Amino acid sequence: METWNALLASHVVAALFVLAIGPLQIFRRRRDRIHRTMGYLWVAAMYYVCASSFWIVTEGHFTWLHGLSAFTLMTVTLGLVSAIRGNIPAHLGNMVGSYVGIAVAFVFAVAVPGRAIPRLLADDAPTAVYVAAVVVLGVAVIFASLKLGGRSGPPARRRQTREGAAAGSNLDQPNGDAPSVLAG
């Protein structure tokens, strides 16, 4: 039986963070700066959840969840490498699979009597609800900050199109910028 300590609490908070970000990443249509930034946060949290699990043992023994953690470390890494290499189907498969794995681990951690989370829910439900709400709020704030952060800064400069160049318009030169160079 686990007792609550800083490692277990941080593991649970990181796992809740991963669970909250996952659907945003999977179901959001745009794959932009927000997706990449949230993705890097998700990967870092996944690595922490998986690595920290090896120090959380039941009665001094590893369980099948530790095997899932080792497997998830591999699938998250493969998903990250796939994204960097531009292999989006492999990236999607590995990341969705990793999310399903952590969702299964979460159900097990919450549903099995005697584990730390069910004991916390039984002994101190307001604290459990508070922690979950803080994590969800944190994800919402990060997402909103990234979304609103993309709107700040100078406006994007208009680019000259081939049609504009063919018609003789020169959008760049009146304001003192260097003329556009159009590839052939």
Describe this structure in words.
- There is one protein chain.
- With 184 residues, the protein is mostly helical.
- The protein contains seven helices and no strands.
Average pLDDT rating: 78
Name the beta content range. under 5%
Distance between the amino and carboxyl termini: 69 Å
The structure class reads: mainly alpha
Q: Secondary-structure element order, as H and E?
A: HHHHHHH
Task: Count the beta strands.
Answer: 0
Low-confidence stretches: 164-184
| Shape label | globular
Largest sheet: none
Rg value: 23 Å
Binned, the helix content reads 55-70%
Give the number of helices: 7
In short:
By secondary structure, the chain is mainly alpha-helical.
Q: Any descriptors?
A:
single chain; 184 residues; mainly alpha; disordered C terminus
Topology:
Layout: H1 6-27, H2 33-53, H3 64-85, H4 88-111, H5 116-123, H6 125-149, H7 162-166
Helix pairs in contact: 1-2, 1-4, 1-6, 2-3, 2-6, 3-4, 5-6
